[in-house]
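Our consortium's second objective concerns turning raw sequence data into structural hypotheses that experimental partners can test. To show how far this objective has progressed, the report includes one record in full. It was chosen at random from the queue rather than selected for favorable results. The single chain below, 318 residues long, was entered without modification.
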Amino acid sequence: MMTATSITNHAPYNHYSHFLRERYAGKRVYKIIVDAGFTCPNRDGNKGFGGCAYCNVDSFTPETRKLPSLQRQIEESAARARKNYKAEKFIVYFQPNTNTYADADTLKRIYDEALSVLPEDTVGLSVGTRPDCLDTEKVQLLQSYCHQGFFVDVEMGMESIYNNTLQQINRQCSHEDFVNAIDLLNETPVEVCVHTIFGLPGENRKMMLKYIDEINRLAKIRYIKFHHLHIVSGSILGVKYQREPFPLFSLEEYTDLLCEMLPRLRPDVVIQRLFGISDPEVLIAPKWNLKKSQIQNYIEGEIRRRNIVQGSGFINIV
């Protein structure tokens, strides 16, 4: 049986902020980014050195900076969010580096501490990690917070579905590792967010469109962050690009790709981000010379102008 489904709500795609409003009865929910000082097995020598080829390694090296306490990070971020965005509820988001790269007891102590800072207003826990840094014990720990009433998601980089590409960008992690991590989470209430990078060297448009087929196939994936490749200083690709530049997306080209992808994307997937941004001080290319809000407005304007609807071309083969 083959069916096609389209989005019929307030937007041509499943927007994360709208999703959170609906989930939490109209409350303004804000993600608080915290840094617990984790490193990465692809930087400390466990799997490799230098990190993934697109990473600015210096900006993610805990040894070079003294971190404020988790309590201070959360309290200060929450105060700013309340003032600037009228935030009412919070998801604690462990973003920098690999936030399951420790034993389960250590992770429990860190997560417990973070969730205890604003107990009345914290509704969720979001943990950014690598697919190869999850195991049964850590998944059980994350699941335990679901049983305490928290929303919990794991954010993992799929980056590319092609192992040749992953090898070239020094990912030190295969697509099979990603699928295995999804399998570990399949029978749990822990939700999954993935991010992808479009425009990696050697991949053409047809190859990138296949990402959507894989996301559609893996029903556990609930959220997606789309990124276009950034070349930043302090990265392996930064050195290569400055020696011999290679093609990168213009805003118009990237928007065209999104407009082709969105109709193919499973309609229940919630889109947390349509594009990524980098600090202008480290960004080498592509330089679109627009503010984040201007990029968002341009992409969304084109999506509406072209009558693009997420899932309108999705075919589910049962």
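The partners drew two points from this record. Confidence is low (pLDDT under 50) at residues 1-8, 60-64. The CA atoms of residues 23 and 261 lie 26 Å apart. Both points have been shared with the crystallography group to help prioritize constructs.
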